[in-house]
């Protein structure tokens, strides 16, 4: 009987600790005035090149309730549906100061570093799925990090940035959107 009581107490404590840790990480949220979750992005966020004719404007993003101990933030935008075998990195921004809670459309905070996208250059590279392909998902993520700066620069790849982010992640918040180009938009776009 005593052993059953000890086991029950341990299970209750474990469940309470798990619920507390789950709720604190669930509070970290990402939102946008430009993007809506699980909805199509506008053409202003489409790439300008590769057969795409959008404005290539990075979206406004804002976040709240970052985990305690956050020393900096990073942002990534990733398309897991790109027909490459490894997805497509559309944006990487590191070394965003911990006191920043939002970014305006088309900008990054002073001191932040934009890394190389899969377009081959640093900076925002908007959506550009192949014309006629199914709607692609674009996973916008803000990462809360335990370091003030990551050792990355404008030539760092999405894979390197992703590795560094996972090594220093305190938490992350995501906002997934979609984008699709009609089959009438003939292009050499690959992602």
The percent range for strand residues is 25-35%
Q: What is the CATH architecture assignment?
A: Alpha-Beta Complex
Number of domains: 1
Structural class: alpha+beta
- The count of DSSP E runs of length 2 or more, i.e. the number of strands, is 10
Question: What's the CATH first level?
Answer: Alpha Beta
CATH topology (fold) name: Phosphatidylethanolamine-binding Protein
Percent helix among the residues? 10-25%
How is this fold's topology laid out?
Elements (H helix, E strand, L loop, with lengths): L1 H25 L2 E3 L16 E2 L2 E2 L7 E4 L7 E8 L8 E10 L4 E2 L9 E2 L21 E10 L12 H11 E11 L12
Antiparallel strand pairs: 1-4, 2-3, 4-7, 5-6, 5-9, 6-8, 9-10
Verbal overview:
- The protein has about 190 residues and is α+β, with helices and mostly antiparallel strands.
- It has one domain (about 25-180): Alpha-Beta Complex (Phosphatidylethanolamine-binding Protein), CATH 3.90.280.10.
- Helices cover about 20% and strands about 30% of the residues.
- It contains two helices and ten strands.
- The radius of gyration is 19 Å and the shape is globular.
């Amino acid at each position: 009987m005593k052993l059953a009581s000890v086991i029950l107490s341990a299970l209750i404590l474990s469940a309470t600790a798990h619920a507390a840790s789950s709720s604190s990480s669930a509070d970290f949220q990402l939102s946008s005035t430009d993007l809506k979750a699980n909805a199509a992005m506008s053409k202003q966020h489409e790439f300008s090149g590769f057969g795409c004719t959008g404005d290539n404007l990075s979206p406004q993003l804002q976040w709240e309730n970052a985990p305690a101990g956050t020393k900096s933030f990073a942002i990534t935008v990733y398309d897991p549906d790109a027909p490459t075998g490894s997805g497509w990195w559309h944006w990487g921004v590191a070394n965003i100061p911990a006191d920043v809670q939002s970014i305006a459309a088309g900008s990054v905070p002073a001191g932040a570093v934009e890394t190389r996208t899969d377009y081959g250059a640093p900076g925002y590279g908007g959506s550009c799925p192949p014309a006629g392909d199914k709607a692609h998902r674009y996973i916008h993520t803000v990462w809360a990090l335990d370091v003030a700066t990551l050792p990355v620069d404008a030539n760092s790849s999405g894979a390197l940035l992703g590795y560094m982010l996972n090594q220093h992640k305190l938490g992350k918040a995501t906002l997934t959107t979609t984008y699709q180009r009609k089959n009438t938009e003939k292009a050499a776009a690959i992602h």
